[in-house]
Amino acid sequence: xxxxxxxxxxxxxxxxxxxxxFSEHKSAWELLSEEKKSAIKYSEDYKEFLDANxxxxxIVLWSERLAKKNGFVSIEEATATTKKIYxxxxxxxxxxxxxxxxxxxxxxxxxxxxxxxLRLDLxxxxxxxxxxxxxxxxxxYGGIKKYHWLNVPLSMHGVVFNKKGEKIDVTLGEKEDxxxxxxxxxxxxxxxxxxxEKAAKDIIKGEDLDAIGATIPIxxxxxxxxxxxxxxxxxxxxxxxxxxxxVSAELSLYPAIKSRDVGIDSGMVGAPAHDDRVCSYIAVKxxxxxxxxxxxxxxxxxxxxxxSVGNTSMESYxxxxxxxxxxxxxxxxxxxxxxxxxxxxxxxxxxxGYDTKFAxxxxxxxxxxxxxxxxxxxxxxxxxxxxxxxxxxxxxSWIRGMLxxxxxxxxxxxxxxxxxxxxxxxxxxxxxxxxxxVDMGPPVLAMHSPFELASKIDIFATYKAYKAFYExx
Length: 473
Ligand code: MN
Ligand code: MN
Description:
The chain is α/β, with parallel strands linked by helices and about 475 residues long. It has 2 domains: about 15-115 and about 270-470, Aminopeptidase (3-Layer(aba) Sandwich), CATH 3.40.630.10; about 120-255, Aminopeptidase i, Domain 2 (Roll), CATH 2.30.250. It has 12 helices and 22 strands. It has a 9-stranded mixed sheet, sandwiched between helices. Strands 8-7-10-5-6-9 form a 6-stranded antiparallel sheet. The protein has a 5-stranded mixed sheet with strand order 11-12-22-21-15. Helix 3 packs across helix 12 and helix 7 crosses helix 12 (about 455-470). The longest helix has 17 residues, at about 35-50. The radius of gyration is 24 Å and the shape is globular. The two termini are about 20 Å apart. Residues about 1-5 have low confidence and may be disordered. The structure holds manganese (II) ion (2 copies). One manganese (II) ion (MN) binds near residues 275, 305 and 448.
């Protein structure tokens, strides 16, 4: 939504009174028609990032590489005069800070988003023989519709630590010539009458979400479980690990699907896990590319999809402790909490996009439409706004001013119809510092499925919005 702005060359046929009083909703493609090329180019770079980085650990490494290339120094090597610093937490979170002329005393501009995504984790005893297969025993992570994950090619990403504490990186199934894993569904012929009536949640049970790992028996007469042996032998040959080592591992299956353009006009990007790789990518890029004398922070967190719990989640004290450590190093006498209470925040996350097929689940007046710009979500939660975060009207007013001054198409909405469901983000955990914070990001269709959709113009509008947030007065 951009107020009082006419799309070039288009005759506005609304009455004078309507123009004066009514809010107006125009396609961001039209409002940003002069920047269409830049918007499309932006998504090309984003798609490259998507195809190369899936796990939290991989995204942290990507961010670190980009930060270093742009003059950031690790907190361990930083001194009182270092302006660009990054800090990493357990290889799964990263914080980038660029100190402005006022240091930390006046607070910061901070964008936080999450880099954990929906996936299927290998259990610690992951391999069993179920003749004629060796199966991979999985435990889904986050809020998925389980049937979405059937018949989808899956790749393996993660780390294994052997007894000696040596780390082994595993990536399997991303290259064209590498095999993938798959959870096969039942053929329709055998669905039966009761199968056709099945509720979506009963199509496959969580415990049955297991993928085919191998099918060729090993050539060794003495081995009882020959197919399981094939699987383990492969891992032993390639990674020097045995069944015991899966106990100290974090291995997951992700959709082995490359990002693709969607629609004849290539207006959307389809890919696994825009949520929330999209905001994470944009946040890092916009911090690095924005020009401001202000102190800017970006924070990429883990475990949002399971409720922000644990030492790599937004609930941990990583953010607070890191800022306090930097303040001490710079001899600024201010606590981490004080810095944060004086900061302004964006919780960078996606929201549900208006999907005409499912309009009955949504309030069209208060939904974010793909192609209409960055979504500003004042309140999240479910039911009577339970367990959500609700930004102050004063702050939304400031955000509006910022977006409209920079001529950025934006919209606002709720996740869906009242009492239909809901969800949350890390916003409430930033808000606990007394920081003003609001959710902002592109609307997404098919969220939490193996192939989510986002409009290229919304991705670009989000980039412009994050940059403006760092730069605005
Ligand atoms: Mn999210
Ligand atoms: Mn999510």
